[in-house]
Amino acid sequence: MEAPESRVHYSRWEDNSQDEVSVAAVSSTEASGCKAVFRKLCTGKLGIAVKVLGGVALFWAIFILGYVTGYYVHKCK
């Protein structure tokens, strides 16, 4: 039987007198499910397709945002 993975969260308050550390156990099924989705979407031919489509979508989003911004900045009165 494998030990469950643990997630450690450390947050520091503004004054150095209080530090908070919390540890949460991650079930192996949750971790393996995330890894399976990652492997499926980020590797191989499907991973390349997802990255290309994400890049194209990001390009068009930035292009449209720049176009609209430029339109309003350079708009004649």
Automatic annotation (TrEMBL):
The chain crosses the membrane at residues 48-73. GO terms for cellular component: cell surface; plasma membrane. Coiled coil: none annotated. It holds the Pfam family DUF4731. It comes from the Eukaryota. Keywords: Membrane, Transmembrane, Transmembrane helix. One of its GO terms (molecular function) is protein homodimerization activity. PANTHER family: SMALL INTEGRAL MEMBRANE PROTEIN 1. This is Small integral membrane protein 1. It comes from Heterocephalus glaber.
